[in-house]
Amino acid sequence: MRSLDRYIFGQLGWTTLAVTVALTFAIWLTQSLRLFDYIVNRGLPADKFLLFAALLMPAFLGVVVPIAAFVAVLFVYNKMIGDRELVVLRAAGLSQGQLARAAVILCAICVLVGYGMTLYLQPASFRAFKDLQWELRHDFSTVLLQDGVFNEIEDGLTVYIRERLEDGKLLGIMVHDQRNAEQPVTIMAKQGAVVSAAGGAMVVMVDGNRQEFDPEKGRLSMLKFDRYTVELGSVTSGEQMPWRWREPPERYLHELLGPPEVEEDVRYRSELIAEFHQRMVVPLYTIAFVAIGLAAMLGGEFDRRGRPRRLAVAIMAVGALEGLQLALQDIAERTPEVGVLVYLPPVLVTMVALLFLYQRPRRPRRAAAPAAA
Fold first, then answer.
1. Contact, 16 vs 68, CB < 8 A?
2. 3-state secondary structure (DSSP) of residue 193
3. What does the pLDDT average to over 65-94?
4. Which of 6, 15, 99, 261 is close enough to 72 for a disulfide, judged by CB 3.0 to 4.6 Å?
5. What is the chain's alpha carbon radius of gyration, rounded to the nearest angstrom?
6. What is the DSSP letter of 239?
7. Distinct helix (H) and strand (E) counts, the chain
8. N- to C-terminal Cα separation, the chain
9. Which residues are paired to 170 by β-bridges?
10. What distance in Å separates the CA atoms of residue 139 and residue 200, rounded to the nearest whole number?
11. Which pLDDT tens digit goes with each residue over 317-336?
12. Where are the alpha helices (DSSP H) in 56-141?
């Protein structure tokens, strides 16, 4: 890489990195606010919350990197126009391809990063995110049994805990079980713990009493115990997690096009195919966005005052292309036969932008000299 390419590439690279970090943090912050429910209402520890939120970042990077590369191309080349650097470089005889070479290298790196995100990191992180979310929703031993709160485990089963120690011991337990409406039962104990069993999870209670009211006889019976076990129905713990169907965003490429294994794979086949096309086409938008930026900054007649109008047109073109991408993705999910159409916008836009970039500017015609008298 020549010194000129290193100079331009350095500016492009740092600008792309800065825009990527800024946009990713902004999107991550807004999306993380939705997860505060796990801290406020479910008692999720801070370290697990940070892990929970961090697993969302690769999904944002796949969208942010193409936009960051586009912004970097517009910013750096427009700055070079304003600083008269492009005037000097053009006067030195550099062609359009030589001026755009650093942006092309940046584009190639971003495309490789994009495919690394969409083909591996994005499904891996989203799969870990959904697994953790599934665990938090079904493993009450981690968050569902909060102290000082009446925890409704399922319909008719409520558990109250006065205090929960760091070693997992529960103090001041009360369980109200009215899953059998004809014989509601209330169980109280001084202490206990959550344990796992083959049939699911259960609370082992120590030193307490079991109260059962008979509505027909109007009699309350009480039984004191040293040790008592309450099963918590379908709620599982630890390794006994219920099976769930993996959604398209958390599947790897071969799993999207593989033969159906369960009924849900057949039912959502169109969404799986649409997700495959989306994974393949998203990095291609980096090429289209960079081509738009280069065409706006380097194509056509040169203007030393900058190109505010072309900047606006380029931004609107990228916005329209993003909207078209979302529309085609929605159509592909409903009609898998037209899934290949998602590849047309980035390819066509790239071709048009390159034609405009390498189009020779028209030279103004010289006025004819007046005829001699």
1. yes
2. strand
3. 88
4. 15
5. 31
6. T
7. 13, 6
8. 60
9. 164, 192
10. 10
11. 999 998 998 888 888 888 87
12. 57-82, 85-91, 96-116, 122-138
